[in-house]
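Lab meeting, item 3. Inverse folding demo.
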């Protein structure tokens, strides 16, 4: 049972949706006041009364039952006490029965959500700056599928633009097919960096690059074969990293896929008198919406990001009939998304309101911002490999007899990278530090994974829980029960706010709450009923932590 939703529905406050009210219900820091509390301050403006009076009125109109046993109004808060024994029995039974499906829902049934994420650039290294979009997008795919949505994960490849002309020029001047095949992405990065170094001294190289890109656009055989080779190498390289991160996609339709779909967009903009010429370029004027113009075509007639993104959005709507289309892209692109969303709205597409920019913070190095052109990047594969190496070293020091040490180290090390990227609110900027990523201390993934192994160990030594009646619970026991009951609402909140960090925070909270229970309450006690109750709590914690980690794309281990 979702107690918050149950309370909200019973309150039945005029003018407020039960789901909205449930979102305001919280767990008081002092549980002697109640198990749940509704702060009534948000109701004051609409109900035109003081929070204290509102709380008192709601209390007087509320009928207690077998679930909610007591209601009190204190200082603008409405506090609820529940039937703890009944709730504990019901919840532990539900978790045991549902297992990997506990927390799942059907609220998204019949609705499709497109998620555009990772969107790596062909022939460029997969660096630490790509981590956030990749793991946030992947987690959102898993969370929304868990809630019943059909999800289409899209890797909108950066496979279009003058940079491919630059690569062909660089390839012809400073590399060869053999060097590219053997050196792979490192070789492509080397010659890309060299192009920009040389272009500073010889600007004519930029003209050569534009020439070769036009050859690609016109279908030139040699240029397209080279572009195909660069693309093949990139996808093979990044696929290995995606597998490490438990990331997959349903579509790799990148920018070039929309090459033949942009003319229709331009034609429609002309027909609807939205396109104007400014300094030779074709634009949509957005002055009245407080934005600079949205550039559709350059003066030479070539397309821009906005042109391709508009074409992609229309294609996705026609192909998938999405309920929402999410773009997991750094906040640096806020204006770009506002602009092209507005253009789609002006084109008369009412579904423009269903386009959502899921913005996240930038990743920089301690020495400054990253730049592929200058070769200043930290490769994501190097970061993962270093965390796995450190995990293996720790295992060999603390548990050298552990079976399958390499697999465990891979789960712990990779999990540390993913969890670290998802542990803060997504909009926060991150300064990348190896020391921080490689730290296994504090509120980290290894701590959560260790809690799972502790649960496995207890259950292995003491046995699986059998039937029980709920005893008089101490605070440590009920604290775990209460935390377990929050999981379904945490998942829904993470989906509604597009914020996977809600689940990482929850996993740490549950692990910490269980740790206190583990210390305060002897699980393998002599009282058989009490032992089975505590084993049921342990089994439930194991299940819910595994579910949380799975939604984040992180593997669990039974021993470490």
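The presenter then showed the designed sequence:
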């Amino acid at each position: 049972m979702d107690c918050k939703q149950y309370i909200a529905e019973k309150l039945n406050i005029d003018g407020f949706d039960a789901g909205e009210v449930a979102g305001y219900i919280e767990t008081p820091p002092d549980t002697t006041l109640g198990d749940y509390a509704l702060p009534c301050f948000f109701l004051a403006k609409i109900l035109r009364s003081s929070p204290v009076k509102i709380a008192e009125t709601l209390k007087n109109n509320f009928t207690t039952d077998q679930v909610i046993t007591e209601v009190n109004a204190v200082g603008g808060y409405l506090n609820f006490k529940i039937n703890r024994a009944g709730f504990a029995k019901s919840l532990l039974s539900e978790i045991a029965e549902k297992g990997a499906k506990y927390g799942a829902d059907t609220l998204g049934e019949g609705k499709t959500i497109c998620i555009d994420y990772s969107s790596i650039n062909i022939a460029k290294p997969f660096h630490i700056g790509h981590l956030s979009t990749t793991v946030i997008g992947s987690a959102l795919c898993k969370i929304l599928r868990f809630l019943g949505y059909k999800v289409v994960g899209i890797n909108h490849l950066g496979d279009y633009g003058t940079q491919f002309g630059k690569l062909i020029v660089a390839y012809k001047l400073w590399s060869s097919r053999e060097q590219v095949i053997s050196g792979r992405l490192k070789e492509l990065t080397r010659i890309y960096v060299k192009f920009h170094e040389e272009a500073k001294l010889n600007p004519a190289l930029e003209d050569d690059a534009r020439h070769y890109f036009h050859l690609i656009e016109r279908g030139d055989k040699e240029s397209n074969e080279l572009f195909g080779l660069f693309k093949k190498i990139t996808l093979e390289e990044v696929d290995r990293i995606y597998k490490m991160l438990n990331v997959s996609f349903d579509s790799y339709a990148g920018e070039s896929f929309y090459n033949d779909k942009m003319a229709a967009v331009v034609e429609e903009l002309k027909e609807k008198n939205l396109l104007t010429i400014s300094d030779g370029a074709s634009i949509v004027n957005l002055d009245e919406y407080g934005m600079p113009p949205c550039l559709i075509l350059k003066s030479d007639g070539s397309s821009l990001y906005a042109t391709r993104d508009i074409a992609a959005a229309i294609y996705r709507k026609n192909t998938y009939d999405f309920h929402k289309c999410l773009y997991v892209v750094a906040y640096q692109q806020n204006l770009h998304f506002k602009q092209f969303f507005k253009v789609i709205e002006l084109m008369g597409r009412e579904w423009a309101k269903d386009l959502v920019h899921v913005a996240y913070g930038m990743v920089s190095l301690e020495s400054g911002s990253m730049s592929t052109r200058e070769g200043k990047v930290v490769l994501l594969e190097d970061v993962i490999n270093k965390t796995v190496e450190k995990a293996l070293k720790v295992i060999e020091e603390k548990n050298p007899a552990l079976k399958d040490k390499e697999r465990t180290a891979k789960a712990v090390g990779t999990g540390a990278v993913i969890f670290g990227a998802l542990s803060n609110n997504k909009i926060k900027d991150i300064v990348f530090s190896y020391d921080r990523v490689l730290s296994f201390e504090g509120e980290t993934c290894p701590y959560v994974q260790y809690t799972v192994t502790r649960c496995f160990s207890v259950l292995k030594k003491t046995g699986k829980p059998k039937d029980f009646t709920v005893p008089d619970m101490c605070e440590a026991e009920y604290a775990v029960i209460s935390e377990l009951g929050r999981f379904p609402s945490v998942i829904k909140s993470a989906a509604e706010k597009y914020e996977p960090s809600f689940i990482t925070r929850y996993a740490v909270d549950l692990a910490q709450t269980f740790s206190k229970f583990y210390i305060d309450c002897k699980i393998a006690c002599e009282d058989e009923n009490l032992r089975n109750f505590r084993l049921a709590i342990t089994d439930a914690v194991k299940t819910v932590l595994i579910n949380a980690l799975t939604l984040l794309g992180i593997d669990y281990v039974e021993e470490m």
